[in-house]
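Quick start: what a row looks like.
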Amino acid sequence: MDIISQLKKFFTKNQFPLLIFFGLSILISIIFPTGFSIRYSYQLDDIAREPIIAPFDFGILKTEQKLNSDLDEAKKSVSYSFKRDQNIVDNHSLFISMMSVLLILNILVLKTLFINIVTNQSLNHSKTILLQTVQLILLYTVSF
């Protein structure tokens, strides 16, 4: 009976703080019935769908060598990524157009030479056409 009397004495003495505690507990459970939800729910090796930024800065406690080796491993684990440089694209498209013009000129020269051979025209005439075409090709390549 001694324990029961001590509990009664404790509850009557601390009646107001206990009432506040239980009242706030009930009030909080009514206001937040489902509890707090976690904003991000990622698993191991998942890729974030949006940037995740820490609310504060923190240091990396690694040596410079260990940090560099970890960064190298991370770079190797990522699939290939490419960056488009418009200057390179422009240069390559210019080169491709130049090569296509040279190819067309070569086809024209070969066609002309073949026609001259088939029609038995003079070899001097073919040489003249060939020299003029080579001059055109040289002028075109120098302009680039």
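That is the whole record. The mean pLDDT is 77. Residues 89-143 form one domain.
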